[in-house]
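Colleagues,

Please find the record for the two-part complex below.
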Amino acid sequence: MNFSLEVMLQLAIVIPLLTTFGIIAAGKYPNIRESITITASIILLYIVINLYQNILLGETVNVFWWEIIPDLAISFSIEPLGMLFALIASFLWLITTFYAIGYMRSHEEENQTRFYTCFALAIGAVMGIAFSDNLFTLFIFYEVLTLSTYPLVTHSGTEKAKQGGRVYLGILLSTSIAFFLLAIVGTWFVAGTLDFKQGGIFDTNVDKTVAGALLVLFIFGIGKAAIMPFHRWLPAAMVAPTPVSALLHAVAVVKAGVFTILKVCVFIFGLDLLAVLPTTQFLLYLAGASVLLASIVAMRQDNLKARLAYSTISQLGYITMGALLANSSGVLGSSMHIATHAFGKITLFFCAGAILVTAHKSKISEMRGLGKQMPLTMIAFFIASLSIIGVPPTGGTWSKWFLVMGTMEAQQWTLMVVLMLSSLLNIAYLLPIPYHAFFSNTLGKEPLAQTQIKEAPWPSLLAIGITTLGCLILFVYPQPLFDLASAILAGRE
Amino acid sequence: MIAHLPILQVIIPLMAAPLCLLLRHPKLVWLFSLLASGLAFIVSILLLQQVMTSGVISYEFGGWEAPWGIEYRIDKLNAFLLLIISAISTVVLIAAQTSIEKEIPKEKHTLFYVLYLLSLTGMLGIVSTGDAFNVFVFLEISSLSAYALIALGNDRRALWASFQYLIMGTIGATFILIGIGLMYQMTGTLNMEDLSQRLPEVEQTRTVFTAFVFVIVGVCLKLALFPLHLWLPNAYAYAPSIVTAFLAATATKVAIYLLIRFTFTVFGFSFSFATLPLETLFLLLGLVGIFVASSVAIYQKNVKHIFAYSSIAQVGYIIVGLSTGTVMGLTATLLHMFNHALMKGAIFLALGAVVYRLGNIQLSSFHGLGRQMPLTMAAIVVGGLSLIGVPLTVGFISKWYLLTALLEKGWWPVAILILLGSLLAVIYVWRIIEVAYFKAPLVGKTPVKEAPLLFIIPIWTLIIANIYFGIDTRLSVQVAQSAAQSLFGVSP
C-alpha cells in the first residue's frame, strides 16, 4: 500500500467509522464480527505507524474536509502530540480487542454487536480528536466520543447502569456545553481564529482577565480530564464492562480530555501567555488538590475498579498540572505521562477484569491469596502498579521525573510536595493488593485450600502480557517517546 | 409565468382547498393536496433563487399600483420563510393520510385537507403580502383553519384546547388589527413600504406609539412568547399529530416573521428599539421563557407536552437573538427559525408515528419502544440531540451564531444562561430516551411494530435535513445573513 499521507490521515479516521458497518452487518456471526474488528485495528495501527514514520522525517500533512461556518472548518493535521495520542490509542485498541473477545465471551455479555460497534465509533472519534487541526474540529469529535461511549457505559441496561450513564452523560455533556463551548466561542471572538498554532493564537496584548477567564472555562469545560469537582462521571462509568473501562476510561476518553487540555495550553494560549495569566496559579492548585484528594479517596475504595478510577483521576491531575506549569519540562512530563499512564492503567484494568471473569471477585478485600491462583495476573498487576507509582524499572519513572522537574523549574514547591506525597499515597493504595495476593494465607475469607492455577482466557492473558511488557519497555527504551514528546514544543520561538 | 410566482405561491393552495371537496375520495384528496403543497414548495424555491440573484420582487395585484393596490413584496426574508413553510408542509403531508386514518373519523378526511391547505394558504399569504391589512386577512384565514384543525383531535380535550387557542388567537389578531387601524388613521396607507416611509413623520405621536404596542403584544400572543404562551401546550398536545407537526414547525415562525417585519420594516429599527425598551424586554422575557418552559417540560408526562413546552423555550432563544438588535443576532434568529422548524417537524412527526402504533403518547407507554420502533426512536434521539445543540446538527449552528451575537454585544452572562438553558433540554430529552431504551416493555402489552414507510420517509427526510444543514450551512447561513443585512440596510 502506498497512499499519500493525506489519504492515510483520513483513512485513520474513516476506517474505524467504516468498520461499524461491517460489525453491524456481521452481527449474527461473532467470529466474523470479531475478525473484522481485529483486521480494522491492525490496518489502523499500520497506518498510524506509517504516518508516524513520515512525521519523524519531518513531513507535514494537512487535510481540509468541509467548512461548516465561514472560517470554521473541519480540518486535520498532524503534530507530535496528536501522533503520540493516536499511536497509543490505535495500539491499545488492537490489544483491547483481543482482551475483549476473551472477556465478553467468558462473561456471556449480551448485545455484543452494539458493544463492538460503539467501540469502533469511539476509536474513530479519538482519531479525529488526535488529528484535528483546530479547536472546532476537536470539539465535534469530542462530543461524538461522549455520545458514542454512552451506550458502552450503560451496556448492561440495569438500573445501576442507567444511573451511571446519567452521571456520565450529565457531567460530560453539561461541562462541554456550558463551559467548553462557551470557551471556544469566546476564543473565536477574542482571537479571531481557532487553529492550533505553536505559541498560541492570542495577541500579546490580549486582556489578561478575559484570557484568564477563558482558561478557567477550558479547564472546567474539558470534563473528560476529570479535574475535581467534575470527576464524578469517571467512577460512575465503571459500571461498564471492563474492556470499556480499560481502553476508554483509562486511555481513550480520559486521555482525550488531558490531550485537549495540553493542546489548549500549548497551541491556543501558548506557554508564555499561560505563565502570566492570573488564573493559572489557582488552576494549578486545583489540579494539585485533585491529585491528592483523589488519591485519598482511592485508598478508601474496596471495589477494585472504583479504586482504579480514583487513581486515574489523580493521575489525570498530574497531566493537567504539567500542562499548566507552562514550561517545557512540564509539557514533556505530561505528554510522556499520557503514554506511560496509559500502559500502566490499562494493565491494571485488564487484571481487574481477568480477576472478575476468572475468580468472580470485584472487591479488594476478597483478593487475598489470589496470587496463588492467578500468579501471572498478579505479577502483571504488580509491575503496572510500579509504573503508576513511578519507580524503576517501569516507564512511569520518566514521566514523573519530568513532571517533578517541571514543578522545580516553575518554582512551585508546594506542587512538588504534592507530587511526592501523592506518590506515597499511590504506594499505599496499589501495592497492598499484590502483596496480600501473594503473601496472605487465606483466599478471600476462606482458608486457602490447595494452589490450583486458574488464569483468565488466553486472549485476555496475552493482552495483559503485552501491556505489562509495554510498561517495562518504556523504561528501558524511552527514547522514541521522549523524542516525540520533546518535538511538541519544537519550533517554539 | 415567472413574473406571477408571488401570486402563484398563495393561489395554488387557495384554489386547491375547495377543489378537494370535489374529489371526495380520501386517498385522491391526499395526493392532490400533496401535489398542491409540492407545487407551492417548487414555487418557493424559484422565488428564493430569483430574490437571491436579482433582489426584491414586487408584484402588483390586478395591476393596481402600490400603495393603492395590494402589493406582494418578496424580499430575502419572505422568500426564506416561504421556503420553510412550504417545505415543511409538503414533507408533513406525506405522512398525513396514514396518520389521520387512525386519528380522525373517515368522513372528516376531506375536511382535514381543506383546512390544512387553507391554513397553509394563510401562512404563505401572511408572509408574501406587503400590505398590512392583508396580513390580518391571511392571519385570520390561517388561524381559523388552525382552530378547526386542532378541534379535529380525537381527544375531547382538543375542543377545549382549540377554544383556548381561539380566544387567545382572536385577542392577538384583534390587537394587531387595532394597531393597523391606528397606523392607517395616522398615515392613510396600508402598504408596508409606504408605512415605513410615512411613519417617521408622525412617530412622536401617542397614536403611533399605541399602534406599535398593540401590534407587538398581538404578535407576541401569536408567537407564544412567555408569558403569553398559555394556549400553546394543550393546542399542540391534543391536536391530530399531523397538525401538531405542521403548526409546531411553521405557525410560530410566521408570527416571528410578523414581529420582525413590523419592528424592522414598518416601524423601523431605530423607532422600535428606542421607543420601547424592546432590548431589555425581549431579553428578559426570552430568558425567563427559556428557563420556565424548559423546566416545566422536564415534568410533563405527555410527550407531546414535553416538546410543546420545549417549543416555547425555543421561541425564547429566537427572541433573545432578536433582542440584541444586531445583524449577527438577527441572523441567529432567522437561522434558528429555519433550524427549529426542521427539528420540531421531525420530532412531532415521529411522535405522530408513535401515536399511530400505540394510540397514545404518554411517556409511560414508551417502555421498550427503542427496540420495537428503532427507526422512529432513533429519529427522536437525533432530533433531541439537535434540540440540545450537539455539533453536526442544525441546533449547533443556531447556538453558535446566537453565542457569537451575544459575545459581540459583550453579554457574557447571557451567553452562560443560554448554555445552561440548553442543559435543561438534555434532561427532558434524556427522560424520554431512558424510558424508551432502558425500560423493558410492560408485561401483557402487545409489542408494536415499526411505523409504516409513509411515516419513516418524511421523518427521516427531516432528520437527514437536520444533519445536512448542520454540516452544509451555505444555504441557511447565506440566506439568513443576507436577509438580516438587508433588514438593517433599510433602517441602519
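Residues 81 and 427 of chain A are 29 Å apart (CA to CA).

Comments are welcome before we finalize the supplementary table.
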